[in-house]
Structure formats: structure tokens, C-alpha cells
Amino acid sequence: MISGQNHTAVTRFILLGLTDQADQKQLLFAVFLMICTVTLVGNLGMIDLTRASSALHTPMYFLLSVRSFLDTCNSSVFTPRLLISNLTTDRSISFTGCVVQMASVILHGTGEPALGHNGL
């Protein structure tokens, strides 16, 4: 670095929401919470069903349960922060939180190509 230059360390990022209107924020919170709940119940139900039934202990259902696990992890990366942003006035995320969120996306995203895109 050249001495004498101004520089500022980034400590927080401001997240821009979908809307600034309070009534729409509550509606969006309810919709996203419902979508998140359905996603989690469906994927965790698929995993539980695959593990509980011995007839489903085949490679195809193993891949479906891994896919459900990855989908659960992926939807759990962004949704909590989105829900918090819709409930509170704090629209920022720390630099560390952003790095952790990005690392989680990369970690879980590497499993998607391994399963292939052949209809699973």
C-alpha cells in the first residue's frame, strides 16, 4: 500500500430489502416463512422416509435423500437473514457473517454438480 492514502475497512454491508412498506414486509415475512417451512418439512420428510423404509434403501433414494439434504442446507443459508431483515429495522450484515454465508453457499453448492442434473 502506498502510504498517505485514505482507506476504510469494511465491517458491515447494508442489505437492501424488497420493500420499505411495513405492511408489505409483514406479508413477505409470512410468505417466505411459509415457503421455508414447506421446504424444510418436505426435504426432512424425504430424508426420514428414505431412512425409515428398508424398501427405499436403493441408490436412487440415497441420491434423493442427499439431494434433499443439500436443498435443506441451501435454503437454510439465506432464509434466516431474509426473515430477520423483514422483522427488524437492522438491514446490515457483518463482514464475518457475509463471509460465513458465502462459504456455506460455496460448500453446499459444490455438492450439486456431483449429483448431476439428470432429473434428480
From TrEMBL:
Alphabetically ordered keywords of this record: G-protein coupled receptor, Membrane, Receptor, Transducer, Transmembrane, Transmembrane helix
Q: What does the entry list under GO cellular component?
A: membrane
Q: Does the keyword Zinc apply?
A: no
The portions of this protein that span the membrane are 27-47
- Report whether Transmembrane shows up as a keyword of the record: yes
Name assigned to this protein: Olfactory receptor 1009-like
Major subcellular site:
membrane
Tell me the GO molecular function terms: G protein-coupled receptor activity; olfactory receptor activity
Q: Which domain of life is it from?
A: Eukaryota
Where, subcellularly, is it found? Membrane
Q: How does it sit in the membrane?
A: Multi-pass membrane protein
Which InterPro entries does the record match to this protein?
Olfact_rcpt
